Each structure stands twice: as C-alpha cells, then as structure tokens.
C-alpha cells in the first residue's frame, strides 16, 4: 500500500512544523507521496508566502528586490534549521529571480505563475530536508505526473486524461523505497505562440496570423481546485489517501 499525504500551509509554516510533518511521514513507511502547500502563517499577524508572492508579482523598481527577499527569507529560515547546503538551496533563489524575468502573456498569467511558485519551491525544499534524514526523496514536477488543465489561469479545469497518467505514475512507485514530493496547487498547460515577422523588429501574434515560427512551451500555472480532488479520483485501489 502506498499512501498519499497532503499538508496545508499552516502545517509547513516553519521549521518546527516541518519537523512534525517529518515525524508523521516516518511513523508510517507507506506514506510516500507527499503533497505540500506553500508555507502559511507562523503567527496571527504573519503574512503567508502566497501573499508575499503576490506582492512580489506587483512590485516595481527597487521594491522588486525587497519583495523577492521577503519570500526567500521564509524558505531560507527552514533550510538553515535543517542545514541544507547553500549549493542545494541556490535553486530556490534562482527560481525566484527567474520569475521576474520571464515573459508572460498577460497580467493574469503572470500572477498565476508567481502564486504557483509557493507550492513548487516548498516541494523542492521538503525533498531537500527529507534527504537530511537519510531517506531517498525526490521533487516531482506536475509535468512528470501528467497534471494538465485548461481554462482560466487562476481557475483552471483539470484535463480528464490526467487521471490515467497520474495513476500510471503512482503505480510505478510500488517498487521504489522513496518519497515523492508534489506541489499541491499546480498544473501544466501547453500553450502555442505564433509569431509573424512584419518588418524590422515587429511581430504579430494570434491564431489567424501567418505562422513563421511556432514555439511550444510549458507554463506553470496555479490550479485553485485542490489537489486532493484529483488525487482521490485518480488513485488506484492499492494507493490510499490520507490528510
């Protein structure tokens, strides 16, 4: 039996909460698929990481660095408590920097991408922390699980074929003694961008443009439908969900 365990933001708010999560996982060796939210509030008047990411997305000028550092500090605090190396932690810093430099189709897409980073980075960090306890742990990108959706950037609908893909991936875990750590509110959608050269430096985009080049790329978006729902629908009988 493989069990899926989902932890919300309050359960992952700081290093002390991380320790409780690790104890829960180690109490039952069948708990091997770990679904995480972004770090929540550490105390009543605290700001959760998702809200810090929204501030980062809306920041401009010198405020961009300040907003990014506020997010980074939350993850750094946890990483330091578990002696995660600077080289391992650097991927979190790089991802946060890249967020501000990526091109987004519109403001809604940009905001969704920033918010999704909270779960993604916490899943990466959780995998790094678990390794400190001499266990095998791996961050799993939603793309690897085949979690795809369509619709509004911030209110997407899961594609039906994703369920079969998730089941296939989960089934393959049975012979592997490792933890898989998955971001809790993310999915992938495949977008196609069309570009038409119209003179020096000018382009036209749209479904009716004459296609000069077609670029397929993956965008990480926020899925507000809880991961719990898709997990419950997709799990085969030998995989159990816990919360």
TrEMBL record:
State the Gene Ontology BP annotations.
homoserine biosynthetic process; lysine biosynthetic process via diaminopimelate
As recorded in UniProt, its EC number(s) are 2.7.2.4
Q: Which PROSITE patterns match?
A: ASPARTOKINASE (PS00324)
One of the Pfam families matching this protein, by short name:
AA_kinase
InterPro entries, from UniProt? AceGlu_kinase-like_sf (IPR036393), Asp/Glu/Uridylate_kinase (IPR001048), Aspartate_kinase_CS (IPR018042)
Q: Is Kinase tagged as a keyword?
A: yes
Coiled-coil-forming residues are: none
Keyword Transferase attached: yes
Annotated keywords = Kinase, Transferase
Q: Which GO terms describe its cellular component?
A: cytosol
Q: Which residues form the Aspartate/glutamate/uridylate kinase domain?
A: 1-189
Please provide, alphabetically and separated by semicolons, the GO molecular function terms listed in this UniProt record. aspartate kinase activity
Family of this protein: Belongs to the aspartokinase family.
Task: Spell out the protein name for this chain.
Answer: Aspartate kinase
